[in-house]
Amino acid sequence: MNGQKTLPGIREDLLAIREELFDIRHDIHAHPELSLYETRTAGVIRRELEKDGLTWKAVHDTGTVAELKGAAPGPTVILRADIDALPINEKSDYPYRSENENVMHACGHDVHLTALIGAARLLSRYRDSLRGNVRFIFQQAEEFGHGSQFFLNEGYEKGAERIYGFHVSPEAELGKLILSDDVDAASCDYMHIKLYGKGSHISKPHLGNDALLAATEIVTALSKLKNRLNPMDKSLIGIGHLTAGNAWNVVADSAEIEGTVRTLSMDVRSRLLVNIKETVDRSASLYDVKAETEFELFTPTLVNDPDAYKTMYKAASEAVGAENIIKQPVPLGFGGDDFAAFSQTVKGCFIHVGTGTEERPDSKVPLHSDNIYIPDEAVLIGSEILVRCALKNL
């Protein structure tokens, strides 16, 4: 790329807008919004894009896409961030802690979107040096699991050669990065099992078909199924919710089970879902109860593309030094991120920005904790990596 900024140039440019980026992050953190309700958040994003002369389009109300066209023709690169918060009551000691009861940016999406705003600001200033285009995607409803589909349904991945994104990680120190050259995160399915039995008085159980007993049998059977799975397949079945019956003295005529199925391979996923349904049906039949099992794919397995990985590694090395990159398979483990849906159709790479510090023990608690502390500096690191990834393709 002609005129590419030098290593200190990009960093200096980011430091020059450091305080305005931190102010944006603090404002977003103080006003978190749940999946599909990110109206105020979208307004802030769009206002900041307009400051950089970028025209934006709304995607399914609260999502936002903008495209920066370089001075010369070339490929299109996508930079993506998520924007939604979680239904958690914040207990951190931030001076800019959440003002919305039971809503919190406990997964760092406030950092992600602010970093992308910073990347858009810098790349807009580098427009005359760009040979190609940068598409900025601010995606809603990542925690809901389907936010990426709103963009894919409208074809915003089309024409792009690469896509890059990042996630904060309290598992690494601030200034360090975690990167995988293969699988980054698991697929994530929502599992919903409905059971239909027959009610009767509890004193005459032989006249009913107990959906509650069937449900407990299914939970036990699925636990045993986990133990029979090939460990090399690396999969997980988790049950988080069970409800049954309507009264203490009535045989339950219905029950519902909710859980998740996660794998590190989509092939394994297909086989496992079949095994689960067979296990559910077999267990329900023991009590003459009808079972309906449904799976909803929230996100596929996230696999980093080899070519995109090489670009990300070079960009990350320039940002923090190669000695600060931790090469680790499956950084998110059985966690999921629907960045994966984009990277199924566009060559992509996802990296994890460390946020832990010795001074703040609450910076090392897990994501989704109600007191997690994420340093502002993660915004600058994430933004620099995104900028460098774009420049290396353009």
Structure notes:
With 394 residues, this protein is of the alpha/beta class. It folds into two domains: 7-185 and 302-393, Aminopeptidase (3-Layer(aba) Sandwich); 188-299, Alpha-Beta Plaits, CATH 3.30.70.360. The chain is built from ten helices and 14 strands. The strands form three sheets. The chain has an eight-stranded mixed sheet with strand order 1-2-4-3-5-14-6-13, sandwiched between helices. A four-stranded antiparallel sheet has the order 9-10-8-11. Strands 7-12 form a two-stranded antiparallel sheet. The longest helix has 20 residues, at 266-285. It is elongated. The model has no long low-confidence stretch (mean pLDDT 95).
Sum up the structure in keywords:
single chain; about 400 residues; alpha/beta; Aminopeptidase; Alpha-Beta Plaits; 2 domains; 8-stranded mixed β-sheet; 4-stranded antiparallel β-sheet; elongated
Order of the strands making up the biggest sheet: 1-2-4-3-5-14-6-13
Number of domains: 2
Name the CATH architecture of the largest domain. Answer: 3-Layer(aba) Sandwich
Category by helix and strand content: alpha/beta
Radius of gyration: 23 Å
